[in-house]
Design brief:
By secondary structure, the chain is an all-alpha fold. The protein has a single domain, classed as Serine Threonine Protein Phosphatase 5, Tetratricopeptide repeat, CATH 1.25.40. The mean pLDDT is about 90.
Length: about 150
């Protein structure tokens, strides 16, 4: 093989790799954007639980330069805030944990949107404390039973 054949082979190999990479990127971008749009539809009809799933999936479809990822994160944050304000701490935790775990799922040699993870972890701690407080205040107060075996008066 001469030098021009080797160069042509190498050039074609790189070109094929770049085209395949672009195809995978475009498919992932399109799928993530479709999940975000589906989440928007579900949120408009007040189907919040499915919207959480759609936004979470959109973040899982992370591609660099995708605008739907920060938008999905913001929607999950807003959903968590709404549930938290209404006192539904279990669903607030679901929204916040979905947000956090989605970014953990897409990390590789770097973690995109690390600030969302940090912000969400702090909020999860606050919600867990509020939930514990709510559970403690809802617990019925039982009168203390007399201690058996103590001194008895005759």
């Amino acid at each position: 093989m001469d030098k021009s054949t080797v160069l042509r082979f190498f050039r074609n190999g790189i070109l094929i790799f770049l085209v395949m990479f672009a195809m995978v990127w475009a498919k992932t971008y399109h799928a993530g954007n479709a999940q975000f749009n589906e989440g928007e539809k579900n949120l408009k009809i007040n189907n919040v639980k499915d919207a959480i799933t759609n936004y979470e999936t959109a973040i899982h479809m992370y591609t660099p330069l995708s605008g739907y990822v920060p938008d999905s994160a913001q929607r999950l944050w807003e959903i968590g805030q709404d549930f938290e304000k209404s006192g539904d701490y279990d669903w607030a935790l679901i929204a916040y944990r979905s947000l956090r775990s989605s970014f953990y799922a897409v990390r590789s040699f770097y973690t995109p949107y690390q600030e969302w993870i940090d912000r969400t972890e702090k909020q999860i701690d606050l919600v867990l404390a509020a939930k514990q407080q709510q559970e403690m205040s809802a617990r019925p107060v039982n009168p203390q039973e007399p201690i058996s075996g103590g001194p008895q008066s005759r």
